[in-house]
Amino acid sequence: MKVIQSMLTVVLVFTSALLFAQAGIKGTVKNKATGESAPAVSVSIKNSSEGTYTDDRGRFTLNTRKPFPVILVISSIGFETKEVEVHDNNARIDIAIAPASSLGDEVVVSASRTTQRKLSSPVTIEQISSKDVATSPQLNYMDMVQGLKGVDVTVSSIGFTTITTRGFNTSGNTNFTQIVDGMDNQAPGLNFPLGGAISLTQLDVDNIEILSGASSALYGSRGLNGTMVMTGKDPFKYQGLSMLITQGVNHVKSNSSNDPVGASPYYDWAVRWGKKINDKFAFKINLQYTGAKDWVATDTTNKNGPGTKYTDPNYNSPNYYGGATSVNINPFLEYALAMDESLAPIIEPMLGQPNYVARTGYGEYGYLDNNARLFKSNVELRYNINSRIQAIASGTFGTGNVVYTNDTRYQIKDFKVGQYRLELRSNRWFVRSYLTAENSGKTLVAGPTAQYINEGWKPSFDESTGDGWYPQYTMALIGGLATGASAADAHWAARGFADQGRPMPGDPQFEQLKSAISTTPIPEGGTLFQDRSKLVNTEAQYNFSDLIKFANVIAGINWRLYSLNSKNTLFPDENKPINVNEYSAYVQLSKKVINNKLNIGASFRLDKNSLFTSPKVTSRASLVYEAAKENYIRFSYQNAYSFPSNIQALQSTLNGYNSYSSGGSNLLLIDHYHFDQYAPYTLQSVEDYQKSDDPAALKKFLYSDIKPQSVNAFELGYSTLIAKRVLIDVLGYYSTWQNFIGYADVANTPGTTDPEAFKDHSTYIQYNIAFNGAQTVNTYGYAASVSVDLSHNFLAKVNYYSDFMKNRNNSQVNNFNTPNYHLNMEFGNNGFGKKQLWSFNTTFRYKPGYFYVVSGGLAQGRVPSSAVLDAQVSYKLVKAHSGIRVGGTNVTNKYYSTGIANPNIGAVYYVTYAYNIF
Question: Which segments constitute the TonB-dependent receptor-like beta-barrel domain (predicted)?
Answer without folding.
Answer: 362-891
